[in-house]
Fold this protein.
Amino acid sequence: MNLPELQKKLLVAARRNPPGAQVPYAFEKRIMARLTEAPRPSEWLAWSRALWFGAAACAVIALTVSVWAPSAAANGDTHFSDGIVETIMASSDEFDSNW
Amino acid sequence: MELSDAELIAAVLRGDTASFEPLVAKYSPRVFATARRYARRESEVEDIVQEVWAKAFQKLSSFRGEAPFEHWLMRLAVRTCYDFLREHQRSRERSFTDLTDPENDWLEAFVRAPEDASEDSAAARQLVERLLEMLSPPARLIITLLEIEDRTVKEISALTGWSVPLVKVRAFRARAEMRKCLQRITKEKYL
């Protein structure tokens, strides 16, 4: 089987038979109707935008806290972190005393 | 008096959407012919062409007018067709055991005497369609543009947005892929 010759023949067949250029009836009207209709708000797009906005806000808060907390600790201001530790340990202290 | 493409585009960009319709009427045949190279079903062809025109409308302000509008539109059309191929990759492992009788007869005629197998027969056209469907999207695009539409590497680069070296690499790989597909046909049929 002469593969190069087969390939050449098949490509010639494709070249000699280009696809038709016929346009379906009233196609232009359908296109113009689609282009001129008011854009419908996409629910997915709205949710996506809201979630991205939320993610950006969280990132800003995290960044702010990460910048502020070490500088607060360096200034000797440990109230915030102490408060968190106290809150967490309070429940276990209560548990120990009850037990 | 018929307005030129540049005048129609300027009108659309000023807000006169109706001026887009003459452009659609003028260039749709070319866009349909392009889409028919990559999709078989008419419903898919029409979807592709609608997508091309929707993108053309949205991106019309990016048309600089340095080249003819048709070139810009055909670039959009080729890239939309390529996106279609990537989204609709069917199983390309389809074997050639389900060839139709005319296709089998044509291949047998080719084996007996290659000069007797006519390139003008419907069976040859169907075989080449099957072969193209077996190719990966980039291979199919390159083979169609380079080997069937007889475009230059530079033209393909402009149409696809691929660099010239990338077009050459993909052309090399596409030809090798096509040879492999043909080998599979003949191995399954004539082993």
